[in-house]
Design goal:
- The complex is a heterodimer of chains A (365) and B (325).
- Chain A is α/β, with parallel strands linked by helices.
- In chain A, 40% of the residues lie in helices and 13% in strands.
- In chain A, the strands form 3 sheets. Chain A has a 6-stranded parallel β-sheet with strand order 4-3-5-6-10-9, sandwiched between helices.
- In chain A, strand 7 (221-222) and strand 8 (225-226) form a beta hairpin.
- In chain A, helix 2 (50-75) runs antiparallel to helix 11, helix 2 (50-75) packs across helix 12 (327-350) and helix 5 (123-130) packs across helix 12.
- The radius of gyration of chain A is 20 Å and the shape is globular.
- In chain B, the strands form 3 sheets. Chain B has a 7-stranded mixed β-sheet with strand order 3-2-4-5-7-6-12, with helices on both faces.
- Chain B folds into 2 domains: 3-182, 3-Layer(aba) Sandwich (Rossmann fold); 196-323, 3-Layer(aba) Sandwich (Rossmann fold), CATH 3.40.50.
- Chain B has helices spanning 6-20, 44-48, 60-72, 91-99, 101-104, 134-137, 151-163, 213-225, 243-253, 268-280, 302-308, 312-323; strands at 3-5, 24-28, 53-55, 76-80, 114-119, 144-146, 168-173, 180-182, 196-199, 204-208, 230-234, 237-239, 256-263, 289-293.
- With 325 residues, chain B is of the alpha/beta class.
- In chain B, helix 7 links the parallel strand 6 (144-146) and strand 7 (168-173).
- Classes of the chains: A alpha/beta (365), B alpha/beta (325).
- Chain A binds chain B through residues 80-82, 129, 132-133, 138, 140-143, 145-146, 158-163, 191-192, 194-196, 222-225, 229-231, 297, 353-354, 356, 358-360, 363, and chain B through 29-30, 33-34, 37, 55-62, 85-86, 88-89, 123-129, 294-297, 299-304, 307-308.
- Bound molecules: thiamine diphosphate (TPP) and magnesium ion.
Chain lengths: 365, 325
């Protein structure tokens, strides 16, 4: 089989980007701001898009604040079970979702709050689910790891590592089967690549040319295991897609605009019938794997390095530097997020718990 | 006698096996550097090194299967799963490979391995993380299945499981890791296939295992206050089941209630009660009683989850409804 190497025209090639990642300069990828650019049907950023840029900031800030509120409410006992926070990875979810259409399917793993919020699920109902309330997205039955909102085609929230990948393949099959140009995207972590389902699904998607976007969030650890300890082949995953004949690219997951750009490229090709695509974003979770994990297996210095690239610092500074926003714009977004999250906590506290007899509801259709 | 928690008792058993038997090694996700999701293996990597305490990738099918192979190759692997629910990812390796290898080879090959996994509901981990598949596996010929509920049994059963020449599923009730109890300093074993009468009584036999046991103790107290003396039996071993001890007890009491904290339908207590019906029907004052968790996936919400689990009120209620006790 002849492999089509992915050489994006508007993007730096993946290998080049990898070198860049090692010494990220704040402004490197932001050169485009201030001039109108688009990839396919998605306009990326430009002077007329102040509102859209501000919204990217708002969404990232919403996820950050939502997750902080989750941590607070976990300590208070309002949220229980396993709770995995997305703090540090916000630019990925927000950049990705900004390119998708309502008809596209989104599937993810248990670290799912950020994906759900960026997909536009109701903040109140997401928080209420974590509180185990009847008003929650899954009526209190799923909890943090199992968020679903079919109306947004947000198809979970799956807590068996690797279990979500075949589901996403089937959803993408349903898109082409029905003759639409909708696609499915599946998020997974660096740890999930070691499950058989990952390889099986890559092969199936390639053989059937499914419109399935494999989105790997490489945060360098699967629970307490650094990639190097559990994976042969180093910390770059995107080259492995080539062996399945799937085009792949690496992106800086701390940079929302770059994520948006590679997404627009990949999704455009998929809608045109190009089959599956693979994107690897390098990112970092600032907190432990779950609330039970003090993250003793990694160095503070590693965390500090990543925090310098914090999208919630670098992105607003960029907006300010390029004149796309003034401080009061940003402050207004933060203020509205604070209100939204506090309202979600109040909504959840005030919501009724499901009644015990509801346990048998929804076992069968 | 030293007092240990179940977590410490299991760690002690692992430590001792690593110390005394060079063919024993441990493998599982994050059991080394991280110390185990439930901290059971904490400190063992430091003591025995990475060859004998092996962190695995998140590849249950591969490392369970590799455990079978290593066992067939003459070693005694102890495999940790982060949750019994994740056994599903490696079920083929457990059932088709580990359990069948000896039989299919006409007895030429054996697979002496232990698969340890936290099991059970009650911690609001929802549908994918709360299941008790030891009850499924108990049906599979070729496997042994044990489930301790005290530190004493945890250590004694672990010792026998490691020595056992057949693959053993060692189910650890996740809610009981912190439960403490006395554990003799002298060496002892608890044989696989032996149930234990934990409290003797004349009026009714109550049977469970794992985290069903605290519910039975509580029930026995409530019954005692009503003047009913209950005999409480811990199955300890789901395969083989110690039918003799159960039959003796029911012949004495004439009443039996079996409680499962896993789903009631098709559970291990269906097997237990059917066996008792077959073997003790002439002694029984009424139908055998089986209670278990509700037959729905495990919900996240606390009240629903607790409502799904059976409790002491269910036990005493069913006893009075069935036997007028
Ligand atoms: C089959 C299975 N095995 C193990 C686990 C326990 N577990 C949950 S998340 C996780 C680490 C996954 O790491 P990664 O894929 O890198 O995602 P991240 O948490 O870093 O986002 C593990 C081992 C599980 N949920 N499912
Ligand atoms: Mg990871």
């Amino acid at each position: 089989m002849e492999i089509q190497r992915y050489v994006p025209t508007q993007l730096r090639p993946a290998r080049q980007m990898r070198a860049d990642l090692q010494q990220i300069e704040q402004a490197s990828s932001l050169d485009g701001v201030g001039e109108l650019r688009s990839v396919g049907e998605v306009s990326l950023y430009g002077p007329g898009e102040k509102a859209e840029l501000l919204d990217l900031y708002r969404q990232m800030y919403l996820i950050r604040r939502f997750e902080e509120a989750c941590a607070e409410n976990y300590s208070k006992g309002n949220i229980r079970g396993f709770l995995h926070l997305y703090i540090g990875q916000e630019a990925v979810a927000v950049g990705v979702m900004s390119v998708l259409r309502p008809g596209d399917y989104v599937v993810t793993h248990y670290r799912d709050h950020g994906h759900a919020l960026a997909r536009g699920v109701d903040t109140n109902r997401a928080m209420a689910e974590l509180f185990g309330r009847k008003t929650g997205l899954s009526k209190g039955k799923g909890g943090s790891m199992h968020l679903f909102d079919a109306s947004k085609r947000f198809m979970g929230g799956h807590a068996i590592v690797g279990g979500q990948l075949p589901l996403a393949a089937g959803l993408s099959l349903s898109c082409t089967y029905k003759g639409t140009d909708d696609i499915a995207i599946v998020f997974f972590g660096d740890g999930a690549v070691n499950q058989g389902t990952f390889h099986e699904t890559m092969n199936l998607a390639a053989v059937w040319k499914l419109p399935l976007l494999f989105f790997l969030e490489n945060n360098f650890y699967g629970m307490g295991s650094a990639i190097g300890k559990v994976r042969a082949g180093g910390t770059d995953f995107y080259p492995m897609a080539e062996s399945y004949g799937i085009e792949s690219v690496l992106v800086d997951g701390m940079n929302v605009l770059e994520v948006r750009e590679v997404m627009a490229n990949a999704v455009g090709k998929m809608r045109a019938g190009g089959g599956p695509q693979f994107i690897e974003a390098k990112t970092f979770r600032y907190v432990g794997h779950s609330m039970a994990d003090p993250a003793r297996y990694r160095d503070d210095s590693e965390l500090a390095e990543w925090m310098e690239k914090d999208p919630l610092k670098t992105f607003p500074s960029l907006l300010l530097a390029r004149g796309a926003a003034v401080e009061s714009d940003l402050e207004a977004q933060r203020e509205s997020v604070h209100q939204e999250v506090s309202a979600a906590v109040r909504f959840s506290e005030g919501s009724a718990k499901p009644s015990p007899h509801e346990i048998f509801d929804d076992v069968y259709a | 006698m030293p007092t240990l928690t179940i977590r410490e008792a299991i760690r002690l058993g692992l430590d001792e096996a690593l110390e005394t038997d060079p063919s024993v090694f441990l493998m599982g996700e994050d059991i080394g550097t991280y110390g185990g999701a439930y901290a059971v293996t904490a400190g063992l990597l430091e003591k025995y090194g990475p060859d004998r305490v092996r962190d695995t990738p998140i590849s249950e099918a591969a490392f369970i299967g590799a455990g079978v192979g290593a066992a067939a190759g003459g070693l005694r692997p102890i495999v940790e799963l982060m949750s019994m629910s994740f056994a599903l990812v490696g079920f083929d390796q457990i059932v088709n490979m580990a359990a069948n290898l000896r039989y299919m080879s006409g007895g030429q090959i054996k697979a002496p391995m232990v698969i340890r996994a936290p099991t059970g509901a009650g911690m609001q981990l929802a549908a994918t993380h709360s299941q008790s598949f030891e009850t499924w596996l108990a049906e599979v010929p070729g496997l042994r299945v044990v489930a301790p509920s005290t530190p004493y049994d945890a250590l004694g059963l672990l010792r026998s499981s490691i020595k056992e020449d057949n693959p053993v599923i060692y189910a650890e009730s996740a809610g009981l890791y912190g439960a403490s109890g006395e554990t003799p300093a002298e060496y002892y074993e608890v044989p696989i296939g032996s149930a234990k009468v934990c409290r003797s009584g004349d009026d009714a036999t109550l049977i469970s295992y794992g985290h069903g046991m605290p519910i039975l103790y509580e029930s026995a107290e409530i019954l005692a206050a009503r003047g009913v003396s209950a005999e409480v039996i811990d199955l300890r071993s789901l395969s083989p089941i110690d039918t003799g001890v159960l039959v003796d007890s029911v012949q004495k009491t004439g009443r039996v209630l079996a409680l499962d904290t896993a789903r009631r339908s098709g559970g291990i207590m269906a097997e237990v009660t059917a066996t008792l019906q077959e073997q003790t029907s002439d002694w029984l004052d009424g139908p055998v009683v089986r209670i278990g968790a509700k037959c729905a996936p495990w919900p996240y919400n606390r009240e629903m989850e607790q409502g799904s689990l059976p409790d002491a009120q269910d036990v005493t209620g069913m006893l009075s409804a069935t036997y007028d006790l």
